[in-house]
Write a structure and sequence with these properties.
It is built from 5 helices and 18 strands. With 311 residues, it is mainly β.
Length: 311
């Protein structure tokens, strides 16, 4: 049996057991299955750039998908949930002369929360290209995070912006274009670039690669994960954070520990997070080494009850 159908069958069985019936739509099929527009290509890496407008609760972004063809293909499904709007899609695929590499425009159509994009030419097996999606809009807002997914637009006790995304159930395509299916993790990890006002801090997955101070009073925080990661686990956190850094003597050597908490809670956090060391010792003894030594260990104070987000 196709393993991608098992979760859908489990839901169907549960509803029938409760005396209910369910009908799956084409939108359900596109989101939940590996159709022909998904099957032929594999994601190698995501590079996500976002600029949230914290007052208007809107988003401007671009995402580059680095992909490899598993078999020849040309039409691909990229997921991006409405009401976000796609502005354009480009690729670095060489033109027919095979000598010029430019940002070639890709034709695309929309079908609800799915983009169907047609590469300029057939991509042969094992070939790799980059596809960049430019988009903007007002993303779906979470009503009861983390159970009800979407962007979390909040304020801290001092009235400063405090924002993140909760998307484990709803899917990562609620805020960035991706292949929104658990079967395909980017083999080479992901990069996340977050533009925020200079008065705030932006935290992402993995390790901080640097901060760029922009002339318009904003800063871009550059984060990167070097290991495969589920799309819903890639998440930005924006707030008036302070940074606490430690290291842990783990079974595989030094593990970097980073804590990002609201500035008013630094003293509380330093005391509270003393439990991290014995917790890690316990888990590593009974469950094996922490799996993300390369990408570090991080705790971030959240504007909702919180979630797990790899590294």
């Amino acid at each position: 049996m196709n393993r991608t159908l098992l979760p859908l069958l489990a839901i169907l069985a549960a509803l029938q057991f409760q005396g209910q019936s369910v009908e799956f739509t084409r939108a359900d099929t596109l989101r939940g299955s590996i159709g022909p527009e998904r099957a032929w290509w594999d994601v190698m890496k995501y590079d996500v750039w976002i600029r949230p407008n914290l007052e208007q609760r809107s988003l401007q972004g671009r995402t580059t998908l680095f992909i490899q063809a598993l078999s020849p293909g040309q039409r691909m499904q990229i997921d991006l949930q409405q009401p976000l709007v796609v502005d354009s899609i480009t690729t670095d695929m060489p033109d027919t002369s095979r000598t010029v590499h430019t940002d070639r425009r890709i034709a695309f159509t929309r079908e609800e929360h799915v983009i169907l994009a047609d590469l300029p030419d057939l991509l042969e097996s094992d070939a790799q290209v980059a596809i960049t999606v430019y988009y903007h809009g007002t993303p779906h807002a979470a009503r009861n995070p983390p159970w009800d997914g979407g962007w979390v637009w909040n304020k801290d006790p001092n009235g400063n912006p405090w924002a993140t995304v909760a998307c484990q159930g709803l899917g990562a395509s609620v805020w960035y274009p991706c292949k929104d299916h658990l079967s395909d993790q980017p083999d080479l990890g992901a990069a996340l670039h977050i533009v925020v006002p200079d008065t705030l801090v932006a935290v992402g997955n993995g390790r901080l690669r640097g901060t760029t101070h922009n002339p318009d009073g904003t800063s871009t925080w550059h984060w990167a994960v070097s290991q495969p990661i589920n799309t819903y686990n890639l998440v930005p956190y924006i707030g008036k954070y302070v940074h606490i850094e430690e290291s842990h003597a783990g079974v595989k050597g030094r593990l970097k520990l980073d804590y990002w908490v609201l500035d008013d809670n630094e003293e509380i956090a330093r005391e509270h997070f003393k439990q991290v060391h014995p917790m890690l010792d316990c888990f590593e003894e009974w469950l094996g080494p922490y799996p993300y030594y390369r990408d570090g260990y991080k705790l971030v104070e959240a504007p909702h009850l919180g979630m797990e987000h790899q590294s």
